[in-house]
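Dataset card, provenance and construction

Sequences and ligand SMILES were collected as paired inputs. For each pair, a complete structure of the chain with the small molecule in place was predicted and serialized as structure tokens. The example below shows a pair involving N6-Methyladenosine 5'-triphosphate. Curators did not alter the output after generation; any descriptive sentences attached to a record were derived from the structure itself.
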Amino acid sequence: MTWATTLAKADGGAPPFVRAVLESGTSPKLLTLVMIDDGKRVLLGHKKRGFGMGYYNGFGGKVEPGETIRQAAERELQEEACIEAVDLREAGVLVFAFDDQPVAWEVHVFAASSFRGEPAETDEMRPVWFNHEDVPFEQMWADDQFWYPLLLRRAYFRGVFAFTQTTQLLWHSLTERDPGDEGCP
Ligand SMILES: CNc1ncnc2c1ncn2[C@@H]1O[C@H](COP(=O)(O)OP(=O)(O)OP(=O)(O)O)[C@@H](O)[C@H]1O
């Protein structure tokens, strides 16, 4: 996560707990997030239970042992929205640090413009389409408003976000880059 450490030093520097967690040597918790974006509308799920309950978000969850990050993204999309992405692409990576958690979360964001199946409500999520200009940021995680514009114009992004009291965004740093570019950010 060297890019995350670099980002944590940018823009005036992240709160000390962010650098401490990134430099602790502890592996981050891996999660996925899948956005369906048909070019005009995005499909979001209204989360009915668990972490982020009440928020609209993409579909995703923890990467389970023995599966790749992409497999986890595909599984969670099937489990939470009952659909299969046709053209799943890597859209970006987000690192979340919480002031009360010893490990950072590394969320791999994927996007697809087409899918098989019919989005259906599950125990966890109720799927709803939103026009690009009507994405309900006031009912979403506080980081989303910063990286959605990049997602919607299909720019690959990386970001680090610091939270307190679970949901309150304290600081962030976001960069746009070419996924093929393996150089330093
Ligand atoms: C802090 N700012 C944030 N901004 C945007 N999205 C966020 C987020 N923090 C977590 N997320 C996403 O929320 C889902 C939680 O998933 P969550 O339900 O906990 O995982 P999973 O389904 O594996 O859990 P269960 O096994 O059902 O307990 C998962 O997609 C994850 O990427």
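Derived descriptions for this record:
The chain has one domain: 2-176.
The mean pLDDT is 94.
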